[in-house]
Amino acid sequence: MILDPPVAPGEHGRYLAPMRRHLRLASTSPVNLAKNERHLFAASHALRIYRERAIYSFIPKNGCTALRYALAIANGVLRPGDDLRWVHKNNGTFVATLPDLILADYTFIVVRCPYRRLASAFLDKIIGEQGRRDRFVTATGIAETSITFRRFAKAMSDHTAQHADHHWAPQIDFFIYSEYDDIFCLEDFDAMVRLLKDRIDLDVFDVRKQVRHGLDAYTPVDGDFADMPIAEIAAMRREGRSPTAASLYDAGTFDAVSLAYAEDIALHREWSPAGSQLTLD
User: Fold this and answer.
1) Is beta strand 219-221 parallel, antiparallel or unpaired with respect to 182-185?
2) What is the distance between the alpha carbons of residues 197 and 204, in angstroms, rounded to a whole number?
3) Nearest 5°: phi and psi at 180?
4) Average of pLDDT values for 235-240?
5) 31, 40 Cβ separation under 8 angstroms
């Protein structure tokens, strides 16, 4: 990756000087920037924290509900304890302008183990949301009754399927900058919370109980669920049980995801704590 280490923090954790910003995707296509689809996608996920002139590039399934909630509070729109559902109806409310992106004093993004992220997208969005499931069916032609994690994972080798929804689009697609001041890992959430408080005085709250995404709301079940139809997994989850991320992977599904998300895997390995990436060992 071309992402460099962050600028050294100054007094009280603030940066001595903001780094020069470079928009990573601006020159990838010789068209007007307003028509550069790859840039526009990343830019639509770049949110501004006004008081600190900071930019947060949010990646779905990477703790973004907690961070967008924190951002809404920091921007004076919500108070702690207000309804979390607001953030899901306001994805575009704080989207940064081009001057915001270039003049930002601080920038950050959060990455996650690609294997766990795709498993989470499958369990929460393919199984849990009809609209997301319909997008996958439309992109692949796979009948809803035939969807399994294996078919979902193997479909990710197709560009259209992989980009049918931002919850499973490659994480690298959300990187608006060539360099960020901080690249955090979801697997080290507590360290991120401490550093964001130090860097830009941002208070991040643990909202997992309210959101009820992931396995926190379920009794995790180990086994081999790669070929279980989604209707059967949905029935398990209605009973309060859910396959673990690891139980969706065998050699075939692991290899399919390794190929489809190779750049994300390398990026996560570069920035994540040792041992935080899912393996078959």
Assistant:
1) unpaired
2) 8
3) -120, 150
4) 96
5) no
Residue whose tokens read 């702690």: 80
C-alpha 255 chain-centroid distance: 21
β-bridge mates for residue 241, sequence order: 219
* Contact by Cβ (8 Å): 205, 80: yes
Least confident range from 10-19, 96-105, 190-199: namely 10-19
Looking at the whole model, is its pTM more than 0.85?
A: yes
Distance CA 174, CA 60 (A): 10
- Distance separating alpha carbons of residues 61 and 120, to the nearest angstrom: 7
Q: Could you give the count of Cα atoms lying within 13 Å of 150 in the half-sphere of its Cβ? A: 10
4 — pLDDT class (breaks 50, 70, 90): very low
Question: Which structure tokens are listed for 207?
Answer: 């909202």
Q: Is residue 274 within 8 Å of 241, Cβ to Cβ?
A: no
Residues in the chain: 281
Work out the mean pLDDT of the chain and round it to a whole number: 92
C-alpha torsion sign, points 94, 100, 102, 106: negative
Structure tokens at 198: 């130090």
SS3 147: coil
